[in-house]
Design goal:
- By secondary structure, this protein is α+β, with helices and mostly antiparallel strands.
- The chain folds into 3 domains: 87 residues; 155 residues, Alpha-Beta Plaits, CATH 3.30.70; 66 residues, Double Stranded RNA Binding Domain.
- 47% of the residues lie in helices and 22% in strands.
- The protein has 9 helices and 11 strands.
- α1 crosses α2 and α2 packs antiparallel against α3.
- The longest helix has 38 residues.
Length: 348
């Protein structure tokens, strides 16, 4: 990887084609953290022989200083080696991709739709804090507010890598606005996060598609579509159905086709993952969207992620997106530890 990094640097200085410069710049940015970590490790390892020689020298004062420095270097080495190993461990190929976010109300009626709306706003706020762009692809609003279903694209660097562990069933325990007796209800919403790579090489044949147009529905009022501009595309071989319900039928068709490509790509990922299911059992987030992954308990102000037995007591800030990293970062760390352990087992 260090050789490749140097090769990319050399080619960047000689490249004249704009597309090649963009491609090389992206690869350079991906390789740079690895190269810097490796060079740092090599530099520290290179200090050892000289310090050992100085520690054994005749000058007592100089030897004592060298021994102190030698101990410090030896203490730093394991952490440097761990960082390099982690950077070299296999990564999700879609780590830096943008993503499609799907949030759907589950059990709980109107309260589930309200909670789905709260979750979607949490992700919107989180995306805003990270400088990502959120664009709603389609939405079906609940009668009391929130969403029965909302699908959005989130564009930015590293979106999928940070949000991929959000896929699953999110459960809420709180007193709903619809509850007159003040009783705590349990409702749920499902979240799916799909990678949206820059280039998706998926062949879709026209004869495999059924395309329907219909009138989009909503909560009522002037924003309800009064023409049959919404588009529903069914991919017959897989049974995947995608929709888009903005005002322009042409735009809806383009968006629905893009969503279909993403879902077919995700299906391919799932097939590849199942072939490595034994290895994935030890990792966080299998991507099983029927798995209950998290509970939001409003009376106690806590958020619990059941996959890693993590509980934080800052629910309001989590729901605002400000403290969502308090949950996401430990999940990423757990996944990194699992990948590192898998790499060590492979090397052993």
């Amino acid at each position: 990887m260090l050789d490749r990094f140097r090769e990319v640097e050399a080619r960047m200085s000689a490249a004249t084609d704009g597309a090649e410069i963009v491609r090389l710049s992206k690869e350079h940015a991906e390789l740079r953290p690895v190269a810097e970590a490796v060079l740092g490790l090599e530099r520290v390892r290179g200090e050892l022989p000289e310090l050992e020689e100085m520690a054994a020298a005749g000058d007592a004062e100089m030897a004592a200083l060298a021994r102190d420095e030698l101990e410090g270097v030896k203490d730093r080495l394991p952490e440097l080696e761990r960082q390099v190993a982690l950077l070299l461990a296999p990564k999700d190929r879609d780590e830096n991709a943008s993503a499609i976010l799907e949030v759907r109300a589950g059990t709980g009626g109107d309260e589930a739709a309200l909670f789905a709306g709260d979750l979607f706003r949490m992700y919107q706020r989180y995306a805003q804090l990270h400088g990502w762009r959120v664009e709603i692809e389609s939405a079906s609003e609940g009668e009391m507010g929130g969403y029965k279903e909302v699908i959005a694209s989130i564009n930015g660097d590293g979106v999928f890598g940070r949000l991929k562990f959000e896929s699953g069933v999110h459960r809420v325990q709180r007193v709903p606005d619809t509850e007159a007796q003040g009783r705590i209800h349990t409702s749920a919403a499902t979240v799916a996060v799909l990678p949206e790579p820059e280039e998706i090489d998926i062949e879709i044949r026209d004869q495999d598609l059924r395309i329907d147009t219909y009138r989009s529905s909503g909560a009522g009022g002037q924003h309800v579509n009064k023409t049959d501009s919404a588009v529903r595309i069914t991919h017959l071989p897989s049974g995947i159905v995608v929709t888009s319900s903005e005002k322009s039928q042409h735009q809806n068709r383009a968006r629905a086709m893009k969503a279909l490509q993403v879902k077919l790509y995700d299906q391919q990922r799932a097939a590849a993952d199942s072939a490595r299911s034994d290895a994935r059992k030890a990792q966080v987030g299998s991507g099983d969207r029927s798995e209950r992954i998290r509970t939001y308990n409003f009376p106690q102000g806590r958020v619990t992620d059941h996959r890693i037995n993590l509980t934080v007591y800052n629910l309001p800030k989590v729901m605002e997106g400000e403290a969502l990293d308090d949950v996401i970062e430990p999940l990423i760390a757990e996944d990194q530890a699992a990948r590192l352990a898998a790499l060590e087992d492979e090397l052993a």
